[in-house]
Design brief:
This protein is α/β, with parallel strands linked by helices. It contains eight helices and eleven strands.
Length: 231
């Protein structure tokens, strides 16, 4: 049975806006190196950095019917996440759908398939992370599902989870873990500020991260260069 789940719970606005302050790499590390989508999903234009709650779409290959269905379920602050049920690099999405999403307050699109109208989307300032750019059109013929768990870019995404995306890629934070990951991200960022200051002052990573004993234990040795060039 194909279905549309209405009004799924979403991560809190406070958690989403808090996580928006951090980069994808920081969040990924802070939550134990999980939740990162495949690096094949790339921003169609550089410099965008967004966070929002997932509205998910499971869509047949080369068919964007369910994207139109999903737009009705979107609220301000959402990010539309589209996962084809099998491989497709067709252009599911363009400027007309973006116009509709903007009217609903949607912040971005993440899609493991193709998009088109890239120049116009850039002019509109609508961020997209996709696995392909393709002018190939789609049909509207086969049903899918909206607001069900999907696997997008190799990561499990549930409706209402937090999506954060920037030039480094896309990461998902489970709704139930959002507050804890926010706290862990803030802690990691504070530690990085201190480390950055020490590195800028000339401290070596070898000493900052206490690597020397581990390197020696692993068998690394230093030898003095001789006049004839032999070690």
């Amino acid at each position: 049975m194909n279905k549309v789940v209405t009004n799924p719970p979403r991560a809190s606005k406070e958690a989403v806006e808090g996580l928006a302050a951090f980069g994808v790499a920081t969040i990924h590390e802070a939550q134990g190196r999980i939740g990162l989508l495949s690096p094949k999903l790339r921003p169609i234009w550089p410099g965008a950095h967004v966070a929002g709650t997932a509205v998910t779409v499971s869509s047949p290959p080369c068919d964007n019917w369910m994207l139109h269905v999903a737009i009705e379920q979107c609220r301000p602050g959402d990010i539309l996440v589209v996962a084809p049920t099998s491989f497709s690099d067709a252009g599911y999405f363009g400027d007309l759908l973006a116009t509709s999403l903007i009217a609903r307050g949607v912040r971005a699109l993440v899609i493991d398939a193709g998009v088109r109208d890239v120049a116009v989307l850039k002019e509109m300032g609508f961020p997209v992370w996709s696995s392909a750019i393709s002018a190939q059109g789609t049909v509207k013929a086969v049903l899918g599902d909206v607001n069900v768990p999907v696997v997008c870019g190799g990561a499990l995404i549930r409706p209402g989870d937090v999506i954060v995306a920037d030039d480094d890629g896309v990461v998902v934070v489970a709704r139930k873990d959002a507050d804890a990951v926010l706290a862990a991200s803030a802690k990691r960022e504070a530690a990085e500020v201190d480390k950055r200051a020490q590195l800028a002052s000339g401290v070596l990573g070898l000493d900052l991260y206490k690597m020397r004993e581990r390197l020696a234990a692993a068998g690394l040795v230093y030898v003095e260069h001789t006049k004839n060039g032999d070690a």
